[in-house]
Amino acid sequence: MSDRISYLDGEYLPHGSARISVASHVVNYGTGCFEGIRAYWNRRQQQLYVTLLPEHARRLVSSCRILSLDSGPEEHQVIDVVVGLLRRNGPREDTYVRPLVFKSEESIAVKLSGLRTSFAVYCQPMGEYLDTTRGLSLTYSAWRRIDDNAIPARAKVIGAYVNAALASDEARQNGFDEALMLTNDGHVAEASSANIFFVFDGELHTPVATDDILVGITRGAVIALAGELGLKVVERRIDRSESFAADEVFLCGTGVQIAAVSEIDRRRVGCGATGPITSKLRDAYLGVVRGDLPDPAGWRTPVYE
Ligand SMILES: Cc1ncc(COP(=O)(O)O)c(C=O)c1O
Fold first, then answer.
1. From the CB of 302, is ligand 1 less than 6 Å away?
2. Same-domain status, 272 and 167
3. What pLDDT, on a 0 to 100 scale, did the predictor assign at position 134?
4. What is the CATH number of the domain that holds 121?
5. Cβ(257) to ligand 1 under 6 A?
6. Are the C-beta atoms of 35 and 59 separated by less than 8 Å?
7. Which of 47, 125, 267, 276 has its CA 20 to 30 A from that of 40?
8. pLDDT above 70 covers what percent of the chain?
9. How high does pLDDT run on average in the chain?
10. Whose CA is nearest to atom 15 of ligand 1?
11. Is the CB of 216 under 6 A from ligand 1?
12. From CA 246, how far away is CA 198, in angstroms rounded?
């Protein structure tokens, strides 16, 4: 991908030519939304599989509605551009795809309506987002998760990632791998860029969608896989103190995939190693998305003919 191609407003361009103005609304106010999508290279099959592409397209369109990004792309356009871009770039390795819909008008007016909307997509190679060969160490951040009545976490809003970046920097500077965030009223929400699951007595528990989380596409996949494996899943409000008593904890998201957590605020989780339920879900998830296991629910979109 040395001569990378990107997409901007109807055109496939050399990456360096896909540019917007410093005066555009999104640069000044963060007014846009985005998706993060993985595509896995299967060497045996010589195929690149995009993971859960229709689901990402649907969430992007719903984020656009929340942010009044009128005249943004429809779901089928997002899907067509992502596949078209990957075909043009032709990667033969694991790849990350980033669609963005944003206010591109040059305007200093602080508002959402009546501003031109742009649609861009770029891609880049991507291996592991965090080192998941060992369990992750998490800490509860002093920064609270943005409230639905401030900036809705369920929309993947560009400007809202300042909240995640503050928490993640704080965690890393204090020697942890990742930050866990609480809602304004003190319940577990999610990690800075991943959802969280706890295992209690063989059941999976995860914060409910109304507790200021991005409702992750991977979270949905985990819930579906758990059902297939006969595991009960409970979506509910979770207290911070409960998290210290879980038998297993894992993060899930497009970037981290499914990653075991070995400690939270220096308290060991379970026996400190990747637990059996986490392992089972991780193997099942990676098997499907990489193309090594059957795909009954149609999670994979093949890129090459
Ligand atoms: C704040 C936040 N929560 C959760 C997730 C996981 O979402 P998904 O599984 O759709 O990647 C992400 C990843 O993008 C995120 O940024």
1. no
2. yes
3. 84
4. 3.30.470.10
5. no
6. yes
7. 276
8. 98
9. 96
10. 193
11. yes
12. 6
Helices 53-66 and 75-89 sit at what angle, rounded to 10 degrees? 130
Whether residue 212 is contained in a domain is answered as yes
- What whole-number distance in Å separates Cα of residue 194 and Cα of residue 255? 8
Mutate which of 141, 163, 195 for ligand 1? The one with the most ligand atoms within 8 Å of its CB, which is: 195
6: its two tokens: 């990107």
Q: How many domains does the chain have?
A: 2
Reported as a pLDDT band with limits 50, 70 and 90, residue 129 is: low
Quick check: CB of 217 below 6 Å from ligand 1?
yes
How does residue 271 score in pLDDT terms, banded at 50, 70 and 90?
confident
SS3 of residue 119 by DSSP: strand
- Residue 171 half-sphere exposure, CB side, CA atoms within 13 Å? 25
Contact by Cβ (8 Å): 191, 252: no
Can you give the pLDDT at residue 150? Answer: 96
Q: Is residue 37 in contact with ligand 1, taking CB distance under 6 Å? A: no
Atom in ligand 1 nearest the alpha carbon of residue 153: 1
Residue nearest to atom 6 of ligand 1 (CA): 253
Would you call 189 helix, strand, or coil by DSSP? strand
Domain match, 53 and 113 both: yes
Q: Which amino acid is located at 139 in the chain?
A: T
Of 231, 219, 274, nearest to 56 by C-alpha is 219
Using an 8 Å Cβ cutoff, are 199 and 276 in contact?
Answer: no
Q: Which residue has the tokens 């508002």?
A: 111
**192-223 tens-digit pLDDT:** 999 999 999 999 999 999 999 999 999 999 99
According to DSSP, residue 133 is labeled S
CA distance 59 to 155: 8
For ligand 1, the distance from its centroid to the CA atom of residue 90, given in whole angstroms, is 26
